[in-house]
Each structure stands twice: as C-alpha cells, then as structure tokens.
Design goal:
This protein has six helices and four strands; from the N terminus they run αββββααααα. The chain is mainly alpha-helical and 147 residues long. The chain has a single domain, classed as Orthogonal Bundle (Transferase(Phosphotransferase), domain 1). The protein has a two-stranded antiparallel ribbon. The radius of gyration is 16 Å and the shape is globular. The two termini are 19 Å apart.
Length: 147
Amino acid sequence: MKCIQYLHSKNIIHRDVKPENLLLNADYSILKICDFGFARFLPEREYDLTDYVATRWYRSPELLVGEPYGKPADLWALGCMIGELVDSQPMFPGDDEVDQLYLITNLIGDVTPRQRDYFSKNPKFEGVELPVTKRFETIEMRYLGKI
C-alpha cells in the first residue's frame, strides 16, 4: 500500500493498520488510510514506543510479546489484511495476547528465540507458558484453492 510506504519513507509508523482504518470512495477507485491516533515518528531508541497499540488481530508477534518494534509491525498488519481479503476471515482472531500468539504459531511456526525471551521477561505474562506448536499449518495450506 502506497500510503504505508509513504509514511515509512517519512519515518512514521501508523501502528493501527486494520480494515476499519481504510476508506474507499463510492466507486472503489480511491483507497485512503485514516485514524492516525497511534501514529508516531520512529524514535532514536527502539524502547521509546509503547507496546499497547494496534488492534489485537493485526498485532505482530514482536508487539504481542513486548519486543521493540518498528516499520515491520505495519507490514505484518497489511499481511493480515491481505489474508482476510482472500477468505473474508481474520487470519488470527485471538481472544487475548496468548491466544493470538497460539494462532500465529499454529500457522507460521514458533516465535523467534528473542521473542520467546521477551515473552518470558514480560511481567504481564508471569506464570504463563508461551504456546509451542509441534505441527503447524502453512499459509499455502490455509489458502490453497482460495487464491
């Protein structure tokens, strides 16, 4: 999406990319992004951004575990929307952060060791085990015959 590319070229991240924040004109020829309430300039240090942004279903794994994040978080949300366009179903409709991580790892595999470390050190997940997926579906399997 050109609007996200433009924002990123100006060192701005939207942080709430989701279908509800896209606007189409009457003949569907113009697409615009709205709701810049969470948008921020990228800070000098990666720890200067809050982790409570974005609608849960479109949050990237790094956002969910409390890892520092940047432009890729917007791109993750765009990917989630593309999946939703294919079959009219949210890719990861988790009930909470842990369920969200479970759904993500079920489709793409385990989180990175760094993300696992951030999860284990995050006080909001104290006493909670990060879901481990032994066998997972792939994106290709999920959308086979739908594209």
